[in-house]
């Protein structure tokens, strides 16, 4: 039986599967969450500079429907309380005004941790099909956008869909983008956001295949191949690291079913990934690479501030404090090269450490790293290490938006695998009168 239900069955709530926990509604919501994870512009505008992702709304629904799993509810509460814990610790050293809007935004943007955990518990093995289809179409759109619309037609389709508070997009300067930048971004705000998100989704798919002992079919292989293509043409510096890791993880996982084929494919695949990585690095070095300098300058200046100020080092600046420090020109940027005014630190993990401090922020980041490294608890150490490196590169050096779903979704997915291992699905009686 196909793991991906036909559209007609989804519309009717899907076929009954007594081996899966929850209801049909739970599984449809879980599948919808996976699809929305690759559509950050499916969100509701809130004010002039923030938005409410629909993925967070669905995450709330799934967490509430997962009431029989107290660990999921506790996880959602724990993550939401992280800024409050940091604020409480800071009160004893240097009180700062609490920023309720920024704190609420943190709770909203990190909901995918618990939401993805709940989705895995409801879908179990079926999450592979939902993720592979989502990844395939998302990466395919990037490739078509680059080679057809941007390079040939000199335009970007569906421009109106990219206008949303909280995101910078090409619509702010389309002429410059189409003349000089020409980097695809798919359904994401910008190229680095896309490259980091697709890389994390690819690693999630590889781990799921390994965890459930599934053989990668044509759909999964096509999705992974398109991800490599999309990241390669993105021009993102993350390609230098993540391409090889994704290729190695996918091929070694495939080797369990086809060892000879993987043995022959691994050398040329690694060679191709290496050539693409080197060419990406060379191309960015030849051009006017202001984005790398800006990113490095924001991270280096923030690190310097933390090392010079013990209060900031231990208790942080408070949620929203990083942006305020940059806007008030109190960040020591003069020592580092940058080409544009820097409004914030261009690193999600860096922002967590800068705003929450080492007492709370480091403990939180370390917890996520442990979840990623364990890779669901049923994988080899090498696969966990590959996942961790890709996650650190994406969250620490590639993506700067806290609303990037898969920065939080990947550890949530791996936690869901661990919880499902502890509580395997068992056949459940069918309620009387339920068609």
**Cα radius of gyration in angstroms:** 22 Å
Oligomeric assembly:
single chain
* Mean pLDDT level: 83
Low-confidence stretches: 1-18, 426-435
The helix count comes to 19
Strand order of the biggest β-sheet = 1-2
Distance between the termini: 20 Å
| Proportion of strand residues | under 5%
The run of helices and strands is HHEEHHHHHHHHHHHHHHHHH
The helix content, as a percent range, equals 55-70%
What is the number of beta strands? 2
Main beta-sheet annotation: 2 strands, antiparallel
Summarize the SSE layout with pairings:
Layout: H1 7-11, H2 24-36, E1 43-46, E2 50-53, H3 54-65, H4 70-80, H5 82-91, H6 100-109, H7 112-123, H8 127-150, H9 174-181, H10 191-211, H11 218-234, H12 239-254, H13 259-286, H14 290-308, H15 310-315, H16 321-327, H17 348-374, H18 381-398, H19 405-422
Antiparallel strand pairs: 1-2
Describe this structure in words.
The chain is an all-alpha fold. 65% of the residues lie in helices and 2% in strands. It is built from 19 helices and 2 strands. It has helices at residues 7-11, 24-36, 54-65, 70-80, 82-91, 100-109, 112-123, 127-150, 174-181, 191-211, 218-234, 239-254, 259-286, 290-308, 310-315, 321-327, 348-374, 381-398, 405-422, and strands at 43-46, 50-53. The radius of gyration is 22 Å and the shape is globular.
